[in-house]
Amino acid sequence: MKIVRKTNSTWSEIDRNIKLLEHAGIVESRFHGKKRLIKLNNQEDTIAILKALKILEMTTLDQLLI
Prior knowledge:
- The chain is an alpha+beta fold.
- The chain has a single domain, classed as Arc Repressor Mutant, subunit A (Orthogonal Bundle).
- Helix content is 59%, strand content 18%.
- Strands 1-2 form a two-stranded antiparallel ribbon.
- Strand 1 (27-32) and strand 2 (35-40) form a beta hairpin.
- It is globular and about 45 Å long.
């Protein structure tokens, strides 16, 4: 639930997004008791995607349209 609080989201939204990221090969998750452990894959593609997302996060829509 820590990730739910930090993202100001719901568990169902987080769960759905984790499944999408797993399907894309970006993260792996497993359960350890009642806790779900999420691990970022250390593949070059994953790192490139995260860098691109960081750039987009820092860029406004107006800057992308120019």
